[in-house]
Amino acid sequence: MTNNDIVQKLWNLCDVLRDDGINYSDYVTELVLLLFIKMVHENTEAGVLKRHPLPEGCRWTDLNSKSGINLLNDYKAILLALSTGKRMEADPESPGQTKEVVVHEDPLISAIYSDAQTRLREPRHLEQMIKTLDQIDWFSAQKDGLGDLYEGLLEKNASETKSGAGQYFTPRALINSMVRCIKPQIGEVIQDPAAGTAGFLVAADQYMRDQTDDYMDLPTKQAEFQKNKAFIGVELVPNTRRLALMNCLLHGMEGDDEGVVHLGNALGDAGKALKQADIILANPPFGTSKGGEASNTRDDLTYKTSNKQLAFLQHIYRNLKPGGRAAVVLPDNVLFEAGVGTEVRRDLMNKCNLHTILRLPTGIFYAQGVKTNVLFFTKGSATDKYQEENCTENVWVYDLRTNMPSFGKRTPFGNSDIGFAPEDFGMDPHLGAFERVFGVLPDGTSDRSEGEYSFGAEEIAVDKEAAAENKNVDDKLLHSRWRCFNRNWISETKSDSLDISWLKNKDSVDTADLPEPNMLVKEAKMELQAALDELDSLSATLDGPN
Description:
By secondary structure, this protein is an alpha/beta fold. The chain has 19 helices and 11 strands. It has helices spanning 3-12, 14-19, 27-45, 68-84, 107-112, 123-135, 138-144, 146-159, 172-182, 199-211, 220-228, 238-250, 269-272, 308-318, 332-336, 340-351, 432-438, 487-494, 517-543, and strands at residues 86-90, 98-102, 190-192, 231-235, 261-263, 277-282, 320-331, 352-359, 372-379, 394-399, 482-486. Strands 5-4-3-6-7-9-8-10-11 form a 9-stranded mixed beta sheet, sandwiched between helices. Strands 1-2 form a two-stranded antiparallel ribbon.
């Protein structure tokens, strides 16, 4: 049984939840509360889990032998005990009385099960779920790691658009590609201020485990740093943070007493308290803050804005250590928004070397129609990490958007199975071409040259005269997906807009090819008159002879 088979079997349990009247948006939360208890049991049996075991009375074996209303009541009591660390028991010294007993003092388990409640009402449904989980071939699942299985379930949830989770879920293939380019190193602190379910942090951890035989090659002190101090995330939504903590723990990432991912607002005190990081990987939430600028309570960000992405971008480039590296997913509006947007982009290019922009295809996020990019930048200049002004000299842009397929369920983007071995670099079917021109140096300073013609780029139409990006450019280079733009050109020609494009989408309409406006009006009138004449004729036919 493959991991995909197991994920599908787990997802099928949602039919049971539906029969119990549980809302679609609550499926995964309800499922993982039970699933995590089972996974901890399996990891404990396999000798994988050394720390953070579940306390006695709150384990899988305390559930799977029971049935009926006793099972449901005991499950509710277990969730409460895991959340609070306490439960009520009969007092042997006072017959008929109960007393409060401490069950555990593990802050990470309390965080994972914080305010956890089941909405199940029918004991038979809980019993059915337990039996199904017991029937799964967990030995096969262990080969790939239960963490990977858990992530597969999160991805499945994101792909089901009714769940509403997809708008926050970054495709695994894109995460892996960004990590392959940034190349995190042992001893570096890696941050995600909009952690979601911790996909970036888990991938960065996996990258370094693959380089060090699962950290077995490291001295004990370094291995402990990797497990407890190397990763830090912030997540605003409690249920999402719960998923993130489970994800991290199942991947062997423990963090501090609050876990790897802390609960809080990165645009508030939680973000302000974050220490500077060597690497920041993030996909900040789309949209504007509903509370306007008041939702962003940071007084250390120079430019006040209700645009969450612009606020997150400021946090990210300010929170990097000198020489620190970042890869951030941002929507198009961040590249062209005027006013505060221009000021933030200018400040970014002043303080950092914004060396690369990857224009992503549409449809790779489950929020339809969102156009996104990945910005890669390094704090300081290419030659001096302590430089604080004029740090960007050239911005390289890769257009992976124009004339690309419409990605979705039927046409998946990238290959999430491509991992982090050296031979995996540049092998992804959609992102590999970009990785190869990005180069092997994670700060973007590899030798680069313009000209990359994957995905039929040489056949794509270009507008040599209309696009400023195409003035005085070699005819062959006009068709390249990979171009370089000088910082002065960006300032003087684009007024510090980073909305840089030069290839024409096959579905776009060229205004230069349209007739004069008065001709368009005349044609429209003629078409309308013809339609009216047809309606008159139809009406006369229906009326019949007088």
